[in-house]
Amino acid sequence: MALRLAAAGVPVLPLRIHKAPFGNCPGCAKNACGGRPNMKQAGPCTCPRPCHAWAAATTNPNVIASPAWANAWRNATAIAYHPGGVRLTVVDLDNADAITWATQHLPPTRTVPTTRGQHWIYTGTMPSANGVRPGVDIKSRMAYARWLGPGTGRIATLPDEVRALAVRTPPAPRPAPAAAAPAGVTRGACCHRTPAYLDRGIAMAEQRITDATTAVHTTVYRTFLAVLSTHGGCGCLTDAHVTRLFVAAQAKGESARHCADAWSNARTALGM
C-alpha cells in the first residue's frame, strides 16, 4: 500500500504503536538520536535528510523499500501521509460531538471514517494546529495523518471557516495605569490620537495583502483580523477604510464574497 500511495504522489511514512512515527535511519531508531518526532524540527542527528515525523514522508520508492526502513515497515501498525505534501488539509474530528459541530458549521467535503470519528478532507494547505476546538485538530503543512482509505464524497476547496480555526486571537492587553487627562480631553473617546495613525494602519494592511505571493486567502483573513483587533473597537473604522481593504484583496484574485466572508469571520473571531 505504501508503494502504491507513493506512486500516486502521496508522501508516506510508517507509524508504530500509539500512532508515533519511526525514524528513517538506524541511528534514529526509537528516537535514539534525541530528535523530537512530534515537533517541526528534527533533533541533533547527522542524517542526510530530515528523518522525523512529517519530514520523513516520501514518495521515493527507493527510500520506502530501503534496508533502513525495512524494520520500520515490519513493525508498523499503520501508514501515515503528509497532507500538505499533496496540497490537502485534514480536519480531524475525534468524536461524535465534533462531527455534529462540523456538520453544522463547515462545508461538506470528502469524509474518511476513523476509529472514533472522521477525517474531513479539503483541497488546499494551511498551518496545522491541534485542539482548535474540543475534539478538532487540523493537519496540513508540517503534520502527518493516518492513511485510512480514500474516503467518500467530493473534495471541496479549503474554506475560510477552517482557516479561521487556526488563527489564535491574542489576549487583550492589560489596561495601562490611569493617568490624569489633559484639560479639554474626554477620557476614552477614542484610542487613536491622530487620524494619521488609522490611515497608516490601513495603508500597511493594503500593502501586506498586495505583497502576498502565496496563501492569499490566509493573508487576507489575517490582515482583516489584525485591522479589526487594532482599529475596530472605537468606531473610527469607516466603510471607506473597509472598501480599500476589499479592493486590495480583489486585486489579488479574491472575490467580493470571499472578502465579505473573511471580514465576517474575523469579526466573529474577535466577538464583534
Structural class: alpha+beta
Q: Which whole number gives the mean pLDDT?
A: 78
Multimeric state of these chains?
A: single chain
CA(first)-CA(last) distance: 49 Å
Radius of gyration: 23 Å
SS summary, helix count = 9
Shape: elongated
Reported for the largest beta sheet, the result is:
6 strands, mixed
Helix-strand pattern, N to C? HEHHEEHEEEEEEHHHHH
| Low-pLDDT stretches | 35-44, 170-189
Strand content: 5-15%
Count of extended strands: 9
Proportion of helical residues: 25-40%
Summarize this entry quickly.
This protein is an alpha+beta fold and 272 residues long.
Protein described:
By secondary structure, the protein is of the alpha+beta class. It contains 9 helices and 9 strands. Strands 3, 4, 5, 6, 7 and 9 form a 6-stranded mixed sheet that branches. The protein has a 3-stranded antiparallel sheet with strand order 1-2-8. Helix 6 packs parallel to helix 8 and helix 7 packs across helix 9. The radius of gyration is 23 Å and the shape is elongated.
Q: What does the secondary structure layout of this molecule look like, with pairings?
A:
Blueprint: H1 2-7, E1 12-15, H2 61-64, H3 67-75, E2 78-81, E3 88-93, H4 96-105, E4 110-113, E5 118-123, E6 129-133, E7 136-139, E8 145-146, E9 156-157, H5 160-165, H6 195-211, H7 216-231, H8 239-251, H9 256-269
Parallel strand pairs: 5-9
Antiparallel strand pairs: 1-2, 2-8, 3-5, 3-7, 4-5, 6-7
Helix pairs in contact: 6-7, 6-8, 7-9
